[in-house]
Amino acid sequence: MAGHSMEFDPIAEAKANWTSAGWGDVADGMVAVTSVMRAHQILLARVESSLRPYDLTFSRYELLRLLAFSRNGALPITKASDRLQVHVTSVTHAIRRLEEAQLVRRLPHPTDGRTTLVEITDLGRSTVEDATATLNREVFADVGMTSDQISGLVDAIHELRHNAGDF
Predict the structure, then answer these.
(1) pLDDT band for position 7 (50/70/90)?
(2) For position 6, what pLDDT does the model report?
(3) Enclosing H/E stretch for 119
(4) Are residues 21 and 59 both part of a single domain?
(5) 99 and 78, same structural domain?
(6) Number of domains observed in the structure of the chain
(7) Distances (CA, A) of 43 to 1, 64, 79, 92, 140
(8) Are residues 75 and 110 in the same domain?
(9) DSSP at 87
(10) Domain containing residue 45
(11) Is residue 154 part of a domain?
C-alpha cells in the first residue's frame, strides 16, 4: 500500500470505463465518491498506524480526546455520542474497551439517575496527550497536500456534509 506506486491511476481508468459504458454524465460523481473513499482508506491507515503503539483505534482516540477537552473530563454517554456523530452503541463499545484499558470509567450522573457519565482517568488523559502529539507530528503536520489544497478540500467536504444535513 504505502510506497507502492502504480503506472496509472485506477480511478482515472474507472472514469474512462464509465464514460465508454455510456455513463459519462455521472462519471465525475463516481470519481468524486471513489476518490473520497480511497482518501479515507489512506488517511485512516496512517492514523491507525500512528495510534497502534497506544492500542487505540481512531474512534476510541476521538472519544478520549473529546473527554479531555470537556470541562470536567466527563460527559453523559448520549452527549458524547451526539458530539462524535456516532450511534450510542458504538460509543458504548468504545467505552467498554477503554474501561478495560483503565482509560475511562463510568459514573452515575449526580442529579439524573437515568444518565451515565463517562469520565477520562489520569491514565486516559496522559495516553491521549501522548497519542495527540504523535498524530500531530506523524499525520496532521503533513497530510500530503499544500495549505491551499487542504482549504479547498475542507471547503468542498463542508459543503457536501451541509447538503447532506450533517449539520
Answers:
(1) confident
(2) 78
(3) strand 116-120
(4) no
(5) yes
(6) 2
(7) 12, 20, 27, 25, 10
(8) yes
(9) -
(10) 8-54
(11) no
How far out from the chain centre does Cα 83 lie? 12
C-beta of residue 18 within 8 angstroms of C-beta of residue 26: yes
Q: Alpha-carbon distance 143 to 157, whole Å?
A: 16
Residues 119 and 88 in one domain: yes
Judge if 123 and 62 occupy the same domain.
yes
Contacts of 115 (CB under 8 A, 6+ apart): 76, 77, 78, 108, 109
What are 116-163's pLDDT values in tens digits? Answer: 999 999 999 999 999 999 999 999 999 999 999 999 999 999 999 999
- Averaged over 90-111, what is the pLDDT? 96
Q: Indicate the helix (H) or strand (E) that contains 118.
A: strand 116-120
| 161 domain-assigned | no
Residue 130: which CATH number? Answer: 1.10.10.10
pLDDT in tens, 45-87: 999 999 999 999 999 999 999 999 999 999 999 999 999 999 9
Residue type, 119: E
Cβ pair 116, 107 in contact under 8 A: yes
Please report the pLDDT score of residue 5 as a whole number.
76
Residues 41 and 92 in one domain: no
Dihedral angle over CA of 136, 141, 143, 147, nearest 10: 140
